[in-house]
Amino acid sequence: MTPVQTALIRASWAKVEPIQEAAASLFYSRLFELDPNLRSLFSHTDIAKQGKVLMQTLTVVVKSLDRIEQLVPAVQALGRRHAGYGVRAQDYDTVGAALLWTLEQGLGADFDDATRDAWGAAHGTLASVMLDASAAADESQAA
Q1: Which pTM was predicted?
Q2: Between the N and C ends of the chain, which has fewer C-beta atoms within 10 Å?
Q3: Residues 6+ apart with CB under 8 A from 69
Q4: pLDDT one-digit tens code per residue, 40-99
Q5: Can you tell me the distance from the alpha carbon of 2 to that of 17, in angstroms, rounded to the nearest whole number?
């Protein structure tokens, strides 16, 4: 992540923060539209509370982008937990698509190509860390 990408993410997130509840609702609606099978992962979850957790997590990530190495252990733990929930590798792409779509809906014209690319890079980095941790957890369970 470049300093410019970090600045773009922070500036755009500042515009999303006031509409977090609506953004979370849009995100999960889009996620389940893109892959209805993912709904089963949330069958025992209060989706409104989950939306708040998602927004809080994104806020922490956005604030920590210039110290990403400090986030890695928490992101790895998140990846291991998600593996336990049944999240598959391809689900990370669906989540990324739902996130970008949600940001586009919430930000409108402010979600330009550079901002989209910055968010895509951030998601890609974090998803990669989560997937690596998930794969390592799977390997240790198989051994």
Answers
A1: 0.91
A2: C
A3: none
A4: 999 899 999 999 999 999 999 999 999 988 989 999 999 998 888 888 889 999 999 999
A5: 22
Q: What is the DSSP code (8-state) at residue 97?
A: H
Question: Quick check: 79 and 129 in contact, CB under 8 A?
Answer: yes
Residue corresponding to tokens 């890079």: 121
Percent with pLDDT over 70 in the chain? 95
d(CA 12, CA 103): 8
H helix runs in 17-111, sequence order? 20-34, 47-63, 68-85, 89-107
Distance of alpha carbon 96 from alpha carbon 86, whole angstroms: 17
- How far apart CA 118 and CA 132 sit, in angstroms, is 21
Say how far apart CA 56 and CA 83 lie, in whole Å.
Answer: 21
Structure tokens given for 121: 């890079």
Q: Is 20 helix (H, G, I), strand (E, B) or coil?
A: helix
**Average pLDDT, integer, range 108-127:** 96
Angstrom distance (rounded) from CA 43 to CA 77:
22
Spatial distance between the Cα atoms of 121 and 130, rounded to a whole number of angstroms: 14
Q: For residue 121, give Cα distances in angstroms to 7, 10, 49, 100, 118.
A: 13, 14, 27, 11, 5
